[in-house]
Amino acid sequence: MRDIAFVFLFAFLVIFAFKRSYISVSLWLWAGLFVPAYWLYSFAHSISFQTILVVITVIVYLFDRNKSKSGFNFLFFLVILIYMHFTLTTYYAIGPEEKVWLEWEKFSKIMLLTLFITLIIRKKVHFTYILMVFVLSLGIMGAIEGLKFIASGGSHHIKGPDNNILSDNNHFALALDMVLPLNVYLLAEYRNSKIRPFLLITLVLSILAVLGTASRGGFIGLVCVALYFLITTKRKTLTIIGFLIVAGLASLILTEKWYTRMDTIDTANEDGSFMIRVKSWKMYTLMAMERPVLGAGFRSVEVGYVWRSLIPNFYKLSFVESPEPTEKAWAAHSIYFQTLGDHGFVGLGLLVSILVTAFLTLMNIMRKVKDIERLQWQYQLAKMFKVSLVAFSVAGAALSLPYAEIFWALIAIIISLDISCRQSLAEIKKEETAKRKQQRIKRRHA
């Protein structure tokens, strides 16, 4: 029954997808984040809804007579560069060929989505649609998990959708952290709308879901988001009251086990799981030292024989305290060390460059539109994207998420926002020039 209902709903959405390219690309992203197969159990489970939306998006874009004005920036150039480098590292990878190329294929699909977002998303309505996608996918999943967490009295184990990069509780928590600021932006946009209660409930339940994952990285990301809002908001009293309400609700649900786990953040060097991370970081660094330009290739260090080949050189980083490596291979548990081991120092340099450039791009947008009334939505949007980037950059230091679709979609939207900002400013300048010209003509005839 659920499968039939979803197929009918999807058919309804497809009708809208054919109407506008920004709707189809938004639904493409939604299918990637919501993971329909996770919710379906019968015949619809095997249907690739995202592939259908990819095809529709390409068709609609190609035949769209009112395409958005093209435009690119330095951030887009860096994204192209990192994709080219990742392709090169895949070709020369030392891991299992089938595994590495499969990861490259997944990343290539994400890059295709990134490309179409940058080509299509330009207007305020476009950004609103695609931001709503985050809430109607990850936000809804967070709300559902938050409700389960409350109903279970704090015992429900929260994680993301199965067979997905966000299935891990830590990864899911970070993704929710990144969506929270986008939810706040939509709350401000729909201040007098009937959907505002839905957005508010989703926001609160998603915060509880982050806490319910018992993810220390997710908790650190949540603290980053909270501190940013507390420092930058003009409504500090209201913000503090909101924090206290959520904290009070959480204190009634969180168990002693949760508090004990969070306490280990202060004593990281005594925590076994953290020291395993340090061990992994050293192993991924060793791989980069051996292959500084290319690294090992997508997730190759996680392969047993590659991992074991690094053990004899472990002593080279003995000045950093950690347990001795065993023959069991581990993930990097860090966006930075994962990229370092997989793609060398060049890959890490490109990733850091993308993060820094994205942040500077947002700062530049805020500076340019700060005093322009009609572009205040761009200012607020850039502000929220900064928070999402900070959450990813800080919490991601302990999580293996450099290839997450949500991150690259965010980068693509930032590129689109920058292009939209430059085009809007050019239009305003053109209008002002025409207005001054008209005034001069009037003075001549006065």
TrEMBL record:
Residues 1-187 form the DUF5935 domain. It is found in: Membrane. The keyword Transmembrane applies. Signal peptide: none annotated. It comes from the Bacteria. GO terms for cellular component: membrane. It is a multi-pass membrane protein. Keywords: Membrane, Transmembrane, Transmembrane helix. The keyword Membrane applies. The chain crosses the membrane at residues 43-63, 75-94, 106-122, 129-151, 200-231, 237-255, 345-366, 387-415. This is Polymerase. It comes from Photobacterium gaetbulicola. The lineage of its organism: Bacteria, Pseudomonadati, Pseudomonadota, Gammaproteobacteria, Vibrionales.
